[in-house]
Amino acid sequence: MPRSTKVDKAKQLNAAYRLLARNIELPEAAQRLSREFCLSRRQAYRYLEEAAQLSRPAEVVQPSVPITLKLPQRTIQQMRSYAKRSGLTVGEIVTRALAGFLSALRRHG
After folding, report:
1. What is the pLDDT of residues 12-61, one digit of tens each?
2. At what angle do helices 6-21 and 26-37 cross, to 10 degrees?
3. What are phi and psi of 28, to 5 degrees?
């Protein structure tokens, strides 16, 4: 069986969160999770334990796709320096920058 992706894990965690929010008893919730997502009972209980610690559902992010970009060396240096200071990954920085740029394009035409 293939490993779960981050999207899969977030969906399973959110399903556990919803079961707990509806006050479903743990054994019943574990059984439902196990059936719905083809999980072992042990793994279902782990999702329920983790979901119990959440204050809101987990964010389900889109899967990322690797691409290759050619950028000026100075831009890369600045981006890596910013990544180190901010704690963000280079991918997160590029994603945020492009999202802002594309959003501005939509607003202006």
Report:
1. 999 999 999 999 999 999 999 999 999 999 999 999 999 999 999 998 88
2. 150
3. -65, -45
Three-state helix/strand/coil letters over the chain: CCCCCHHHHHHHHHHHHHHHHCCCCHHHHHHHHHHHHCCCHHHHHHHHHHHHCCCCCCCCCCCCCCCCCCCCHHHHHHHHHHHHHHCCCHHHHHHHHHHHHHHHHHHCC
What tokens were used for 73? 């060396």
Half-sphere exposure of 43 (CA within 13 A, CB side): 13
pTM above 0.90, yes or no: no
